[in-house]
Design goal:
alpha/beta; globular; single chain; Rossmann fold; six-stranded parallel sheet
Length: about 450
């Protein structure tokens, strides 16, 4: 894409980037924050809502893609925000004068090294989920977090919605009866990956970092890669998207780590470049409570279309379905459905986006409060929550890959019954990168 064409496209998109009525107002006392990873999520969500919270000044940006960096700068300029410093490496950004906090919005395979380095610098961290690619990385991150004494927020915006507390109160009141099973699902199509020549605007070797060198898969949006479909960078739909609903379930039911995980699935459509299963079912054993994940990227049409993404709680007295913007109860006695909020809001609708904004701004305000008061009580997406939900989805991927039920030892995080899966708790890093875990 030519530079002139790119600016034109970027400016059009930016016109509606910030919420109508928002304007930049210089203000003392804001927390100086940098962003590592200015792709779609880092820019259109995290940068945007950090600004709208009016608790942060964006003072530094980092990305190995010149296009991604320029997109973020263009959008800031359109919003009337002074241009921050830009860096190619996160190490250089972490040395930015006066920096207090950092947002890590890079692909999963980079999270551990960047998080640990931020902790060692004494920086407060907003961390994208899943927190790590493998179990041993998560353990090394836990050690760094405990030693650093910094505030950490894991990006689970749905924890800011009223739904979890409402469902939890409903279950505790006995109106659902005994909960015998929980299911969560995302049935959503996935685009076909397309390999292209690596553009000169990105340092792709640095992008791959500690992961094995991958193919460059093009994404329709300029400056983005289709990394989420690549096993070397990501562990698939459950780890990338489904983890939000698993976190909701854990919050509602007060669950920690599963004691057992088994999975079955595969790749039915033989599409070149597809590396993750296009259908998958995972059974998590939470001390006798079965929590089941389902996804299909093809061939699913629900009789209740709004239930293709969300969570079902099955009890003696009925069924709860919880979505992003509401939930509903189907009584076992056949009486009428009861709705709370709007469980049938469509993705991308104005109502959906308004709720997303509220949740993200609330998250950023809680993060800012934790930084200013040097305590994390305001944070709902704590490091521990991120650790437990991330570990569960990693075990799920290992169960799928090894085709074996895994028995988990929560104290050590070891797999007790599968030597192959046990070896996969820590993957080898590509030289010269060094895995941060040590016994």
């Amino acid at each position: 894409m030519q530079r002139r064409s790119f600016i034109k496209t970027s400016s059009i998109a930016t016109a509606s980037w910030m919420t109508p009525g928002w304007s930049f107002r210089p203000q003392e006392g804001r927390i100086k924050i940098g962003i590592v990873g200015t792709g779609w999520w880092g820019t259109d969500y995290l940068l945007k809502y950090a600004l709208e919270s009016e608790a942060f000044d964006i003072v530094a940006l980092c990305d190995v893609s010149k296009v991604a960096l320029q997109t973020a700068l263009d959008k800031l300029a359109e919003a009337g925000v002074p241009a921050p410093n830009t860096y190619k490496t996160y190490e250089a950004l972490y040395d930015h004068p006066g920096l207090q906090a950092v947002i890590i919005a890079t692909p999963t395979h980079w999270h551990a090294l960047q998080f640990i380095a931020a902790c060692q610098k004494g920086l407060h961290v907003w961390q994208e989920k899943p927190i790590s690619y493998d179990i041993r990385e998560a353990q090394a991150m836990s050690r760094a977090y405990q030693q650093a004494g910094v505030a950490v927020n894991i990006d689970f915006p749905r924890l800011q919605a009223p739904i979890n507390d409402q469902v939890k109160d409903f279950i505790r009141s006995g109106q659902l009866g005994e909960v015998h099973q929980i299911e969560f699902n995302i049935h959503n199509p996935v685009g076909i990956p397309k390999e292209v020549e690596i553009p000169k605007s990105i340092d792709f070797d640095a992008y791959c970092g500690p992961a094995p060198l991958q193919k460059y898969l093009e994404h329709p949006r300029p400056g983005r890669l289709n990394w989420r479909v690549q096993q070397g960078f990501s562990r698939g739909i459950l780890a990338d998207w489904g983890i939000h609903y698993l976190q909701n379930i854990r919050s509602v039911m007060d669950l920690d780590l599963p004691i057992g995980v088994e999975a079955i699935g595969g790749i039915t459509r033989k599409i070149k470049g597809v590396q993750h299963p296009d259908h998958l079912q995972v059974h998590f054993d939470y001390d006798g409570l079965p929590v089941i994940w389902n996804h299909k990227t093809w061939g699913f049409t629900s009789t209740l279309p709004h239930t293709k993404i969300g969570t079902f709680y099955y009890g003696d007295k009925g069924t709860i379905f919880a979505a992003d913007s509401g939930w509903e109860f189907y009584p076992a006695d056949g009486s009428s459905r009861k709705a709370f909020g709007n469980p049938r809001v469509k993705l991308g609708s104005k109502e959906f986006e308004a709720e997303i904004r509220r949740e993200f701004v609330a998250q950023f305000l809680s993060f800012a409060e934790a930084i200013k008061h040097k305590e994390e009580n305001a944070i709902k997406g704590t490091f521990e929550e991120g650790f437990n939900s991330t570990s569960a989805v990693i075990y799920a991927d290992l169960a799928y890959l090894t085709k074996c039920k895994l028995d988990i030892e929560p104290t050590t995080m070891n797999v007790k019954n599968n030597d192959v899966a046990q070896e996969m708790l820590k993957r080898s890093y590509r030289a010269p990168y060094v895995h941060p875990y040590s016994t």
